[in-house]
Amino acid sequence: MCSSTHKSMGWKGWSTIPAPHLTESNAPWLDLSYPLGKSTPVPTVPAGKTIVSPFPEARFERIRSMPEHKVNLSEMQMVVHFGTHVDAPVHFIIDGPSFHEIPLDRLYGQGVLLNITCKPVQELGPEIFDGLEIQRGDIVVLNTGWSNYANTARYDEHPYLSAEAAQYLVDCGVKLFAVDFPSPDLPIAYRDSNFDWPAHHIMLRNGLLVAENLRVPKEIESGRGEFLFLALNIEGSDGSPARVVGRSIT
Questions:
Q1: Which of 22, 55, 210, 234 shows the greatest Cβ crowding within 10 Å of its Cβ?
Q2: Nearest to 177 by CA among 206, 138, 129
Q3: 3-62, pLDDT tens digit by residue?
Q4: Average pLDDT in the chain
Q5: What pLDDT was estimated at residue 50?
Q6: Residue 212 class from Cβ within 10 Å (0-12 exposed, 13-18 middle, 19+ buried)?
């Protein structure tokens, strides 16, 4: 069991972790991300009698088309936290690194996938990681099956990580934590005016990256795996959309 103590502070720096390596497995890489488009799930919040997204509406448009033009040309406009994405520390830590300052070795490597069943708005404590052999420098992917509720009201009643669970991952030396729902923090509709995103703050200030809105295929089983978070290297950004792939190695 990893020790667990924390204080609210600014950027603490990148932890020392082993260099990542990938196996020579012949297992196929599987897509763990949503395609970007009109059907990509987004977080929503009640606003009177309507449901709205806190994000500006994403736009994907073909601005040149063949045969009228000699090429097809598409344009997109969206927040960097739309769909499957990775948060940079500066998303919540004012003196934290932006996305282009994230070392590449923080975005790929071996880790563990944990499949669990959750209830709506269930707080997840460190006990969910009991028996999970987390190694320093691992990526931890939490799959609750919540992606099955994408584009429904229940998607925004997702489970969330307690502060103690977030600190446990930091103490274990995890370098990236990914979930198959909109946020490791309390769902938007249940936050009061004093809410301060404790899971994000604890993880990001310690250099533990956060990825959200994964879609884990059933072919990837609980246990050891390899993961690539192929995010765009956006200068100065607080996050980046990502094509995430993974495979089991056990």
A1: 210
A2: 138
A3: 444 445 699 999 999 999 999 999 999 999 999 998 999 888 766 656 678 889 999 999
A4: 93
A5: 62
A6: buried
Element (H, E) at 167: helix 163-171
Q: Is 58 helix (H, G, I), strand (E, B) or coil?
A: coil
Could you give the count of Cα atoms lying within 13 Å of 242 in the half-sphere of its Cβ?
Answer: 29
DSSP E strand boundaries for 200-238: 209-212, 223-231
Q: Please, which residues have CB within 8 angstroms of residue 161's CB and are 6 or more apart in sequence?
A: 123, 124, 179, 184, 185, 199
State the pLDDT at residue 46.
Answer: 65
151: CB partners within 8 A, 6+ apart: 39, 41
In Å, what is the CA distance from 149 to each residue of 67, 71, 185, 190, 215?
A: 39, 38, 18, 18, 11
Q: What is the DSSP letter of 241?
A: E
Q: Is 108 helix (H, G, I), strand (E, B) or coil?
A: strand
Tracing tokens 């533990």 back to the chain, one arrives at: 208
Beta bridge partners of 142: 114, 179
